[in-house]
# Entry
Amino acid sequence: MNIKEKGFFISITAISLLFGILPVANAMHIMEGYLPVGYCIAWGAICIPFLVVGYLSIKKTIAANRKSITLFAMAGAFVFVLSSLKIPSVTGSCSHMTGTGLGAILFGPAAVSILGIIVLIFQAILLAHGGLTTLGANTFSMAIAGPFVTYGIYKLCQLLKVNKYVGIFLAASIGDLFTYCVTSAELALAYPSATGGVLASALKFLAVFAPTQLPLAIIEGILTVVIIMGLETYAKPELTKIGFFGGNK
# Structure
């Protein structure tokens, strides 16, 4: 890695640390203790197969190219930074960008489940953002569901010959929005409406999230494009080794 590449990665790390340690209050993913015990256990169990596949995916990538650790670290820092900048939106949760689209595009969605759960654990312990009891639900929405949709949209745009950067923007933005659709569904399942049931409750949560989440999703899409353009300039050899330019990811 040359001096310019090192400077780029150091700059991203510095910005990540700066934003990551800013004090926050009254903002959560799904907050600690907000979900009933049965739901916490169920969402945690659902996440286990994805985490196993994600671990194997990361292990395979690093075994083939140890320098990819730097890109993994950067993708994890990106998730930590964006998901730590949050706007209180509704009791028990909040609106914020996820940052998981970048990792999904670079390494595939399975690997992001590991990056995501690591970030969520650190946020729960260090920032009181989210919680350990709701770790499974938060992992599924932010680190599994969102990244898989991001990856699907990205590959679809490739098949349709959509401009690369437009495809990245759409993938990251839609993946962000889908995360909040899943979060709304998780909350609705735990707290269905007395009149309209789960569907009515989910629509209410979505309506509350929408005013803040729509612009945040657009911003995340733009940021993801900018980061990838920077990587193409300063870390082209690393991207080539993980198969980014060959369409393998």
